[in-house]
């Protein structure tokens, strides 16, 4: 390691310490140590902590938020009766109606706790990849706790304070080259280099690759689709990364198998899948053994299914730290199932057995069978005649396939693709092909390959 690189790492580590001390207090390192101890504890200890936090959150919501106060009055329960029924050893929160996005939009003010004045609320919003962005509020405590958990899980992928990191992420300001001095300063002291995942051009990728050859990152954080594009460019141009990567973290989109395979081949390290949402923070993280461990410190996760361990269903997320605007049984819009296995890695956090992705990207057949959107992306993998694609399920009987093709496109390719779609959805399903010069990104800047309008 060069003297300059070593000095920068020491400076960045000190800057991280100063930042965390400013945000979380002088004892933030103690908080991180206690968090690590909890995440590494026996399952019984973890679940006891989670139940107690869940009890406290529900009591807070009933006492201080008009929405939940009125919700339980509708059940014919008096507030004191309800609070007495909440037992930390057994909490049946299935009585509480799932929190839907439409309810949040309509009841935004009533969902906010009366204990938190407006100036203490931190406004946030989703990217709007599945429709209109969702506005909500969080608080500083939520962000502090969220970050401490992220610090713990990111270490699974080899990242630590001060390590140089390449981030391929959405940065709308970068599209116009309008990066202000605060962003530049933040990236400098954090020891991060950003490549805009919303605006990946060959020139930008090549410039970043050349810089990384000198800069030597030890970790990468990226959108899965952006990571794939980055790795594909390197592979096709026969470039060889001279980096000693400890790991790659992918997040915010579905990590399809061919994304993972190409990235791990090109960079010679493991890709760790991280699952979360802007509304609730980090939900689960993949370990070295490939299992997705649930963040029980911050999250209570449910599957809306008769048998959540064998039959996938909608995911309900309860965020245990956001007291400004409690998210209880929030329908996040993803489909998955749980697993009751014990992970070979030794960590006893419960496992998210399968994550099928967005409910709007998971197709349904006439028999109500769920088809993972990844099935369709795999069919397009290695089809040389297709540059971009997007498959939209309009109804149970009709799909629209949008394509950007190149000179290698043939009628045989068309027949092959249609056949693969009908193999999954049914021979009677019609597939209308529409050719385009470009398929635009979603409002959030993410690339949507599959969209289902069937609910």
Structure write-up:
With 455 residues, the chain is α/β, with parallel strands linked by helices. It has a domain of 88 residues: ANL, C-terminal domain (GMP Synthetase, Chain A, domain 3), CATH 3.30.300.30. It contains 15 helices and 19 strands. The strands form 4 sheets. Strands 4-3-5-6-7-8-9-13-12-11-10 form an 11-stranded mixed sheet, with helices on both faces.
Give the distance, in angstroms, between the N- and C-terminal Cα atoms.
54 Å
Q: Briefly note the structural class of the backbone.
A: alpha/beta
CATH fold topology of the domain at 365-452: GMP Synthetase, Chain A, domain 3
Q: Which of globular, elongated, flat, extended, rod-shaped describes the shape?
A: globular
Tell me the helix content: 25-40%
**Tally of separate helices:** 15
Radius of gyration: 23 Å
Blueprint of the fold:
Layout: H1 3-24, H2 28-39, H3 43-64, H4 66-73, H5 79-85, H6 101-106, H7 108-111, E1 122-125, E2 135-138, H8 140-154, E3 165-169, H9 172-175, H10 181-190, E4 192-196, H11 202-215, E5 219-222, H12 224-236, E6 247-251, H13 257-267, E7 271-277, E8 281-286, E9 292-294, E10 299-304, E11 313-319, E12 330-339, E13 351-358, E14 363-364, E15 370-371, H14 373-380, E16 386-393, E17 398-405, H15 411-425, E18 430-435, E19 450-452
Helix pairs in contact: 2-8, 3-4, 12-13
């Amino acid at each position: 390691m060069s003297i300059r690189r070593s000095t920068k790492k020491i400076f960045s580590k000190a800057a991280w310490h100063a930042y965390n001390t400013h945000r979380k207090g002088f004892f933030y390192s103690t908080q991180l140590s206690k968090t690590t101890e909890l995440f590494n504890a026996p399952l019984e200890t973890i679940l006891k902590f989670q139940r107690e936090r869940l009890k406290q959150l529900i009591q807070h919501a009933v006492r201080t938020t008009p929405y939940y106060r009125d919700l339980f009055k509708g059940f014919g329960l008096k507030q004191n009766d309800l609070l007495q029924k909440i037992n930390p050893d057994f909490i049946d929160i299935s009585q509480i109606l799932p929190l839907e996005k439409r309810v949040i939009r309509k009841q935004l003010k009533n969902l906010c706790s009366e204990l938190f004045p407006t100036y203490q609320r931190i406004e946030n919003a989703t990217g709007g990849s599945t429709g209109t962005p969702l506005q909500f509020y969080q608080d500083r405590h939520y962000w502090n706790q969220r970050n401490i958990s992220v610090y713990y899980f990111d270490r699974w992928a080899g990242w630590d304070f001060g390590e140089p990191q390449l981030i391929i992420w959405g940065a709308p300001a970068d599209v116009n080259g309008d990066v202000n001095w605060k962003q530049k300063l933040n990236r400098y002291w954090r020891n991060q280099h950003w490549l805009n995942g919303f605006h990946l051009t060959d020139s930008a990728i090549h410039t970043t690759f050349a810089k990384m050859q000198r800069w030597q990152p030890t970790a990468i954080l990226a959108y899965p689709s952006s990571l794939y594009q980055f790795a594909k460019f390197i592979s096709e141009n026969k470039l060889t990364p001279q980096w000693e990567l400890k790991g790659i973290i992918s997040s915010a989109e579905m990590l399809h198998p061919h994304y993972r395979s190409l990235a791990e081949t090109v960079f010679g390290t493991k890709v760790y899948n991280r699952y979360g949402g802007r509304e609730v923070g980090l939900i689960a993280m993949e370990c070295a053994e490939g299992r997705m461990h649930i963040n029980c410190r911050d999250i209570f996760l449910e599957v809306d299914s008769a048998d959540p361990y064998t039959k996938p269903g909608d995911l309900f997320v309860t965020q245990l730290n956001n007291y400004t605007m409690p998210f209880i049984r929030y329908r996040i819009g993803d489909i998955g199932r749980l697993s009751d296995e014990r992970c070979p890695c030794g960590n006893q956090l419960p496992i998210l057995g399968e994550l099928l992705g967005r409910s709007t990207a998971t197709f349904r057949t006439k028999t109500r069978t769920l088809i993972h959107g990844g099935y369709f992306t795999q069919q397009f993998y290695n089809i040389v005649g297709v540059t971009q694609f997007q498959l939209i399920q309009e109804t149970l009987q009709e799909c629209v396939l949008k394509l950007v093709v190149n000179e290698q496109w043939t009628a045989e390719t068309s027949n092959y693709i249609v056949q693969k779609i009908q193999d999954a959805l049914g021979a009677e399903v019609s597939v209308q092909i529409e050719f385009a010069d470009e398929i635009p990104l979603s409002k959030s800047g993410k690339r949507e390959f599959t969209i289902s309008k069937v609910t």
